[in-house]
Amino acid sequence: MNPISTPPTSTTKRLQQLLFSALLLTFSAFAQPAHAQTWMVSTTAYIKLGILDKFNSLGGYEATFFVTDEKTQAQYMLTKQIPKGESGVDVLFPSEPSEPEYFKNMKGTSAQPTPGRYTWECRVNGKKAVGGRFTFPETANDINVIGQR
Fold first, then answer.
1. Does a structural domain hold residue 86?
2. Which range is the signal sequence, renumbered to this chain (predicted)?
3. Does residue 56 fall inside a structural domain?
4. Range of 115's domain?
5. Whether the Cβ atoms of residue 116 and residue 135 lie closer than 8 Å to each other
6. CA 96, 101, 107 angle in degrees (round to 5)?
7. Dihedral of CA 91/95/98/104: which sign?
8. Potential cystine with 115: which of 94, 123, 138, 146 (Cβ 3.0-4.6 Å)?
9. Environment class of residue 130 by beta-carbon count within 10 Å: exposed (0-12), middle (13-18) or buried (19+)?
10. What are phi and psi of 89, to 5 degrees?
11. Is residue 125 part of a domain?
């Protein structure tokens, strides 16, 4: 005996459509909304200045770094104590004002990363030991929108 299949009735078709719609609605409720990729970006330039007592003949000493903006003549300074047993130190210009010691002017204002030409010198125990020049770079950031995913 062969079972005879009957074509689906309109009620059965309607139930299938409702079930499909309910499933689609459920899945779309849990789907993440589409967003373009979001980026945060930062670029910070620093100049590294350093001094080294090559033969460690001084023992401990005081090194005071002076940086002068050639355009504005604004001068910033930072003093470091180099303990006996250490021969030198490197510093970053400009340094973060959140640091315990940072480059600042006579009013206590911190140096800013302003592009331009600068001169610098380091005085050891009050006498000029080294110096030089540098150009502080200009920095920029680009952000690309990748699209929605």
1. yes
2. 1-36
3. yes
4. 47-136
5. yes
6. 85
7. positive
8. 138
9. middle
10. -155, 150
11. yes
Which bin fits 107, alpha (ψ -120 to 50), beta or left (φ > 0)? alpha
Query: For the chain, first and last CA: distance in Å?
Result: 55
User: Which residue is it, tokens 């006996």?
Assistant: 84
pLDDT tens, N- to C-terminus, the chain (149 residues): 555 655 556 777 777 777 767 666 666 666 666 666 777 888 889 999 999 999 988 889 999 999 999 999 999 999 999 999 899 999 999 999 999 999 999 999 999 999 999 999 999 999 999 999 999 999 888 877 766 55
Residue 51 sits in a domain whose CATH number is: 2.60.40
In a domain? residue 117: yes
Alpha helices in the chain (DSSP H): 10-30
Beta bridge pairs of residue 110 = 104
